[in-house]
Amino acid sequence: MAIKFIVFIKLINTIALDLTQHRSIVNALIEVRKQSTVLLPIAHSFISFDILLAVIKGNADGEDLTVKALFANLPYSDMGIRYHFRTLIKNEWIELHNGDKDTRIRRVKPTEKLVKRFALMSQQLNSIFQ
Question: Could you say which of 43, 52, 126, 127 is the most buried, measured as most Cβ atoms within 10 Å of its Cβ?
Answer without folding.
Answer: 52
